[in-house]
Write a structure and sequence with these properties.
The complex is a heterodimer.
Chain A lengths: L2 H32 L4 H13 L2 H26 L7 H16 L5 H26 L3 H23 L1 E2 L2 E5 L19 H19 L1 H11 L1 H6 L4 H25 L17 H11 L4 H22 L5 H32 L1
Antiparallel strand pairs in A: 1-2
Chain B lengths: L7 E9 L5 E10 L4 E5 L6 H8 L7 E6 L2 E3 L4 H6 L2 E4 L11 H6 L13 H15 L14 H14 L4 E5 L7 H16 L3 E6 L2 H7 L2 E6 L2 E7 L5 H9 L17 E11 L5 E11 L2 E6 L6 H8 L5 E8 L2 E2 L5 H7 L1 E4 L3 H5 L6 H4 L11 E2 L2 E2 L1 H14 L16 H14 L4 E5 L7 H16 L3 E5 L3 H7 L2 E6 L2 E6 L6 H8 L9
Parallel strand pairs in B: 3-8, 3-9, 6-7, 7-8, 13-20, 13-21, 16-19, 19-20
Antiparallel strand pairs in B: 1-2, 1-4, 4-5, 9-10, 11-12, 11-14, 14-15, 17-18, 21-22
Classes of the chains: A mainly alpha, B alpha/beta.
Chain lengths: 347, 511
C-alpha cells in the first residue's frame, strides 16, 4: 500500500474518534455544571495536569505505557475474531515474573523476557480451552482474571514479600531498572518499548504471512480454512502474542516506575490496566498504531485527574468524567456498527 | 395489456446513492393483477434496487408508487408486507439455527413479550398451506443443515404464510437445481391461478420465457421496454438486456484426453449430520478433459468437493493426483501439489469480503516465496500480481486496494477464477462456477474453463446448472444420493435419460 492511501484510510477513523472525544468532554462538562462545579476550571486543570509542563506530559506518557500494551492484547484478539479480555491477569504475572527473575538476573532484559514469557504462558489455558474445547474466551478469561488476582496477590504477599516493607513485594534491583527519560518523573524507557512493541505488532499483523493468516481467520474462518490456514492455530497465536504484550505491560510497570519499583499491596499499581486496555483498543480502532494515540489520551486523563481534583471536584467526579469520556470515545465502534447497518439497508 | 388499472405501478423512480451512483434513472413499471411479470436485466442493471424501493428497504430519490390506484410509501419491509407485498431475497434472511417452522412464524408469534406462541396452530396452518401447494419442506430441522434449495422454499413459504398478494422473487432460480426450478414454477403457476401477482426478477432468458406473462427489461437503470412473453423470443430479450447479441454458445473443439490426472477410488464421506453423503464413488479426470458432475443439489456434491480439497474428513477410500496418494492431505499441501479449487460459496469461502482485491488475490498461495521478502509479505509484488489478474480477466474493480465487497458478484467470481488459475494448477475443481453471475461473466468463465481444458489441464466441474454441465463437459456423471447413476457422453445422452438418473434411476453404462 502506498503511504498516501494508507494515511487516507486512517483519517476517517481518526476524525470519528476525535469527534467522540469532544462530545464526551462536552457531556462531562454538562455533568460537572449540573453538579455545581466550574467545568471550565476543572478542564483547564485536567489539561494542565496532563500536558501543562514537561513533567506533567511525562506523567501522561508514563501512564499510557501499560495501557498501550494491554490495548494491543485486545486489538490482536479482535483482529483474530476473539474477544480476549484476559490481559488483566497476564499483567499481574508479567509483573511478578519480572520481580522474581531480576532478583537473581539483575538486568532489564531478563525482566522483560520473563514478563513476555509468563504473560504468554498465562494465556495458554484460555487459548487451549477455546481451541480444543470451544470454551468461549470471554467466560474463560474473566474467570482466569480472578484466579490471577488471588494467585498473584498470594505470590506478592507470601513468596516475594519485602521483609523491610510489608506493603509491597521485593523491589526490582537497581541494575534491572529501566532508565528514566525525564528527570524526577516516572517516565522510563518503558514508554519507548511500548511504542516499539506497537510498531512491531503492526508490522506483524499487516506485513507478514502470520498477520495475514490471523486477520483472515478473524474476518472469515471458513475462507481461512479454504485458503490453507488453520484458524485454530491462528487463535493460539493471537492469545500467545496478546499474552506477551500484557505480560510486558506488567514487567515494565514494576521495572520502570519509581519510586517503589515493586508491586504494591493489593496489586494496586498493576491493577485495572487490562480492563482499561479494552477501552483504549476500541478508541484506537483495534489497530496497534491507533492504540498509541488512544493510550496517550487515556494516560492524559489519568495523569490530569489528580490536578483536576485540586479544583474541588471530588475524585469520584473525576472518575465519572473519565467514564463518560471513555463511553463516548468507545461509541465510534458502535457508530460504525450503526453506519454499517444503515448502509446495508441502503445497498 | 388492455387498459385496466394496474394493481401496482411504480412511476418514474429515481434512486441516487449517497456516493453519487445513479442506480435508477426514472423507471416506470406496471404490474397487473394475477400476472407474472418478468423483470429482466443483467447484474447491476437496477432490478434489485427497484424492488428494494418497492419493498420499503430503500427510499427513492424521486418517484411515486401506486398500489391499487392509491399512492403509497412503505417505510419498512414490515409495512410492505402488511400491505400484501412480499419479497424473497437472493440472499436469504433466515435464522440459521432455527428450524423452518420457527423461521416462518418469526415476527408473527404474537405481540406481548410474554404472550404464548401457538406453535401447534401455526404448524397446522403451515402444513395445510404446503399440502395445497404441494410444496413440502421439513419443519423441524435447523435451516443451516438444509440444502440451499430447501432454504429458499422456506423463504417463499414465509411470505405465503403472511398472505401476501404480490410476491417479489429476486433471482429465485440462481440457487435451484433444474428439478427444483420446475417445482418452483409449478408453485408459481398455482399461485397465479389463485390470483396472486408475481414479480420475477431474473437474468435467465429461458426461465423468463417459460414462466412470465410479460417482461420488462431493464438496462443500466432504465427501462428498455416491456413485451408480451408470447410475442418475445430469447434472442430479442437478450438483445434488449445487453444491448448486443450475446453468444450463448461455447466454442469447444474436439480433443483427445490424455493421461489420468486425478483419480478417486471407493470414496466414502459423511455429511454434517453424520449421514453417508458420498457412498463409494470411483472416477477419474484426465488431462485435457472437463469431467462434469450434475445432479440435484444436496446429493453429496458439496461433501465430495470438500473431501477431495482437504476440507472434510474422508471416511474410506483413496484419492490420487498424478498417481500420488493425496488422501487426507490438508488444503495447503494440495494447492502446492497442483490442485485449484473454485468453491461453490464465493462470499463465505472463496473470498474475504472485507479485505482488498490485493489481499484476496493471494489467499491459498500467500505462503509462496514469490510473495515474500524475508519475514515480510512483499505487498509490491502482491499488488503486481493482483493487477495482472484484474487486467487479464477484465475484472472491473475500483482498484486493487478496494475491498472485494465493492465488486459485483460476477467480478468477485472472476477474481476467484483468476486467483485459482494463477496457482498454476494441473487439476481445477470448479464448483457452481457461474452461480448468481451475470451473463457476460458467465460466458467468460465458461470459456475460460474450456480454455484450461484445451491447455491440457484436468477440470472437474460440479454444477447444479444442467445446461452448463451439458455444454462444457467431455464426460459427465449424474449424482444421486452420494452415488453416480451413470457416467455418460453429454453429446449422446438424452434429456429423458438425464432426468431419470437425476431421479435416482441407474442409467445404462456408456463410455
Amino acid at each position: 500500500m502506498s503511504l498516501k492511501n494508507e494515511l487516507r484510510s486512517y483519517l476517517k477513523p481518526l476524525g470519528e474518534s476525535v469527534l467522540a472525544i469532544l462530545i464526551g468532554a462536552f457531556i462531562g462538562a454538562v455533568v460537572l455544571w449540573l453538579s455545581g462545579y466550574d467545568a471550565i476550571a476543572a478542564y483547564k486543570a485536567l489539561i494542565q495536569g496532563s500536558f501543562g509542563s514537561l513533567g506533567n506530559f511525562a506523567e501522561t506518557l508514563s501512564k499510557s505505557t501499560p495501557l498501550i500494551l494491554t490495548a494491543i492484547t485486545f486489538a490482536i484478539g479482535a483482529r483474530t475474531g476473539l474477544f480476549n479480555i484476559g490481559a488483566e491477569g497476564a499483567v499481574y504475572f508479567g509483573a511478578i515474573a519480572a520481580v522474581a527473575v531480576t532478583q537473581n538476573l539483575r538486568n532489564p532484559v531478563s525482566g522483560i523476557l520473563a514478563g513476555l514469557l509468563v504473560g504468554a504462558l498465562w494465556m495458554l489455558p484460555a487459548a487451549v480451552l477455546k481451541v480444543y474445547r470451544g470454551v468461549h474466551e470471554v467466560i474463560s478469561t474473566i474467570m482466569f482474571n480472578w484466579i490471577a488476582f488471588y494467585l498473584a496477590s498470594w505470590l506478592a504477599l507470601e513468596v516475594y514479600e519485602n521483609p523491610m516493607n510489608p506493603n509491597s513485594t521485593l523491589p526490582i534491583p537497581p541494575g534491572a531498572r529501566l532508565p528514566l527519560l525525564v528527570k524526577n518523573s516516572t517516565l522510563s524507557l518503558g514508554f519507548v518499548i511500548a511504542l516499539f512493541t506497537a510498531v512491531v505488532v503492526y508490522i506483524l499483523m499487516w506485513h507478514t504471512k502470520l498477520g495475514y493468516e490471523l486477520r483472515t481467520s478473524g474476518l472469515n474462518s471458513k475462507a481461512a480454512e479454504y485458503g490453507g490456514i488453520n484458524p485454530k492455530v491462528a487463535m493460539l497465536w493471537s492469545f500467545v502474542i496478546g499474552g506477551m504484550t500484557a505480560g510486558l505491560a506488567g514487567a515494565l510497570q514494576v521495572m520502570g516506575v519509581p519510586p517503589s519499583y515493586s508491586i504494591s499491596q493489593g496489586l494496586a499499581n498493576v491493577y485495572g490496566y487490562g480492563f482499561d486496555g479494552i477501552g483504549v483498543s476500541l478508541v484506537g480502532r483495534n489497530h496497534p498504531l491507533g492504540v498509541i494515540f488512544a493510550g496517550i489520551l487515556f494516560g492524559a486523563l489519568n495523569a490530569g485527574a489528580t490536578q483536576m481534583q485540586q479544583t474541588g471536584v471530588p475524585l469520584e467526579m473525576v472518575k465519572v468524567i473519565e467514564g463518560i469520556i471513555i463511553v463516548a470515545v468507545a461509541v465510534p465502534g458502535l457508530l460504525d456498527m450503526f453506519l454499517k447497518l444503515f448502509r446495508r439497508d441502503r445497498a | 395489456m388492455e387498459e385496466r388499472t394496474p394493481v401496482l405501478e411504480m412511476r418514474d423512480i429515481v434512486k441516487v446513492y449517497p456516493d453519487g451512483t445513479k442506480a435508477l434513472k426514472g423507471v416506470t413499471i406496471k404490474v397487473y393483477e394475477g400476472e407474472i411479470l418478468g423483470l429482466l436485466g443483467e447484474n447491476g442493471a437496477g432490478k434489485t434496487t427497484l424492488m428494494k424501493v418497492l419493498f420499503g428497504m430503500l427510499k427513492p430519490t424521486r418517484g411515486k408508487i401506486f398500489l391499487r390506484g392509491k399512492e403509497v410509501r412503505f417505510k419498512s419491509p414490515a409495512d410492505a408486507i402488511a400491505n400484501g407485498i412480499g419479497m424473497v431475497h437472493q440472499h436469504f434472511t433466515l435464522v440459521e439455527v432455527f428450524n423452518a417452522l420457527e423461521n416462518i412464524i418469526l415476527g408473527m408469534e404474537g405481540h406481548g413479550i410474554f404472550s404464548k406462541i401457538d406453535v401447534e396452530n401455526a404448524r397446522k396452518k403451515l402444513q395445510k398451506l404446503m399440502d395445497e401447494l404441494n410444496f413440502q419442506v421439513p419443519l423441524d430441522v435447523p435451516v443451516e443443515n438444509l440444502p440451499v434449495g430447501v432454504q429458499q422454499r422456506i423463504e417463499i413459504l414465509k411470505m405465503l404464510y403472511r398472505d401476501v398478494d404480490i410476491l417479489i422473487l429476486d433471482e429465485p432460480t440462481a440457487v435451484l437445481t433444474p428439478i427444483e426450478v420446475k417445482e418452483l414454477f409449478a408453485v408459481l403457476r398455482k399461485l397465479k391461478e389463485r390470483g396472486k401477482t408475481i414479480i420475477f426478477i431474473s437474468h435467465k432468458l429461458n426461465e423468463v420465457m417459460e414462466i412470465t406473462d410479460r417482461v420488462t427489461v431493464i438496462r443500466k437503470g432504465e427501462v428498455v421496454g416491456t413485451v408480451k412473453t408470447s410475442e418475445a423470443t430469447p434472442q430479442l430479450l437478450a438483445r434488449m438486456m445487453v444491448g448486443r447479441d450475446v453468444v450463448l454458445r461455447i466454442e469447444k473443439p474436439p480433443k483427445e484426453p490424455g493421461e489420468v490426472i486425478f483419480r478417486v477410488e471407493d470414496l466414502w464421506v459423511k455429511g454434517d449430520r453424520g449421514e453417508e453423503a458420498v457412498r463409494g464413488l470411483t472416477f477419474e479426470v484426465r488431462a485435457g478433459e472437463i469431467f462434469g458432475i450434475a445432479g440435484v443439489e444436496g446429493n453429496g456434491q458439496s461433501e465430495l468437493i470438500e473431501a477431495i480439497t482437504g476440507l472434510r474428513k474422508i471416511e474410506k477410500g483413496r484419492v490420487y493426483l498424478k498417481g500420488v496418494d493425496i488422501t487426507g492431505k490438508k488444503p495447503r499441501e494440495l494447492y502446492d501439489l497442483g490442485i485449484a479449487h473454485i468453491p461453490e460459496d464465493r462470499t463465505h469461502m472463496g473470498l474475504i469480503l472485507e479485505m482488498s482485491v490485493m489481499e484476496n488475490s493471494i489467499l491459498g498461495m500467500h505462503w509462496r516465496k514469490e510473495f515474500s521478502r524475508g519475514f515480510l509479505l512483499d505487498w509490491g509484488r502482491v499488488e503486481a500480481h493482483a493487477r495482472e489478474l484484474v487486467e487479464e480477466f477484465e475484472i472491473s474493480a475500483p482498484g486493487t486496494k478496494a475491498p472485494v465487497k465493492s465488486l459485483s458478484g460476477g467480478n468477485q467470481q472472476k477474481l476467484i477464477v483468476a486467483r485459482e488459475v494463477s496457482k498454476r494448477p494441473e487439476f481445477i475443481i470448479a464448483a457452481q462456477p457461474t452461480r448468481g453471475v451475470d451473463v457476460a461473466s458467465t460466458e467468460y468463465i465458461r470459456n475460460y474453463l474450456v480454455k484450461l481444458r484445451n491447455e491440457n489441464k484436468a477440470v472437474l466441474l460440479v454444477s447444479a446448472d444442467l445446461d452448463e454441465v451439458l455444454q462444457l463437459s467431455d464426460r459427465m456423471a449424474i449424482m444421486y444420493e452420494g452415488q453416480f447413476m451413470g457416467i455418460v457422453n453429454p453429446e449422446e445422452v438424452t434429456e429423458e435419460q438425464i432426468g431419470l438418473m437425476m431421479g435416482g434411476v441407474k442409467g445404462e453404462p456408456q463410455k
